[in-house]
């Protein structure tokens, strides 16, 4: 293979695969942030429930 055909192949591969990879990475990063927020809210809720149970007894 010549250098030009290799570069053409790599460019084509990047165009076809690069976009889905970037979208996947973007969504995974957003998902990670959402999971972290969910964990924080869950901990806060758990602490609030414990406090309310202590107040009832």
UniProtKB/TrEMBL annotation:
Superkingdom of this protein's organism: Bacteria
Keyword set, alphabetical order: Coiled coil, Membrane, Transmembrane, Transmembrane helix
Transmembrane segments: 6-29
Pfam family, one: YvrJ
InterPro entries: YvrJ (IPR024419)
Keyword Transmembrane: yes
Coiled coil start-end: 28-55
Name this polypeptide is given: YvrJ family protein
Species: Oceanobacillus kimchii
Lineage: Bacteria, Bacillati, Bacillota, Bacilli, Bacillales
């Amino acid at each position: 293979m010549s250098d030009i055909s290799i570069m053409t192949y790599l460019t084509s591969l990047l165009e076809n695969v690069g976009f889905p990879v970037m979208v996947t990475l973007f969504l995974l990063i957003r998902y990670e942030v959402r999971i972290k927020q969910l964990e924080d809210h869950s901990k806060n809720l758990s602490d609030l429930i414990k406090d309310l149970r202590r107040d009832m007894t």
